[in-house]
Amino acid sequence: MEITYKQITPDTPSLIDLFNHSDYFPIKEKHDTKRIAKMFEKANLVISAWHNETLVGISRSLTDFCYCCYLSDLAVRDDYKRKGIGKKLVELTKEKAGDQCKLILQSSPGAMEFYTSIGMDRIDSAFIIQREI
Asked: Where do the N-acetyltransferase domain residues begin and end (predicted)?
């Protein structure tokens, strides 16, 4: 199976289909297509993974390309997991952000083991103000 990686933002229906077929959905309101579209429109580093015409993975980040890169969303279609796609998306994100950038993310509880397994260090020096919606 050949997976193709592209630095493009897929259309919103493809993104929602991917999220619906993964264990990750970035927002509570799954039918808020305008918000999903805006999230990806405003991101400045998006890498997508494709199997033929099917979107099978996505990495969405915000970065200055010289100091830090916040990897906000990482999702892989359930039936494509354990094939190295998530790891490759993280690697490509770091590569595109550049050597001067540190890569930062907030993990969902179920993904903690994945991030340590691909060599990321866990930190405890972060803070958050949760969104209201």
From this structure: 3-133
- Structural domains present in the chain: 4-117 (3.40.630.30)
How far apart, in whole angstroms, are the C-alpha atoms of residue 101 and residue 104? 9
Single out the residue of 89, 53, 64 nearest to residue 74, CA to CA: 89
- The sign of the CA dihedral 37, 43, 44, 47 is negative
What separation, in Å, do the N-terminal and C-terminal C-alpha atoms of the chain show?
Answer: 39
DSSP letter for each residue of 9-33: PPPHHHHHHHHHTSS--SSS-TT-H
Q: What is the mean pLDDT of residues 105-124?
A: 88
Give the C-alpha separation, 89 to 84, whole Å.
9
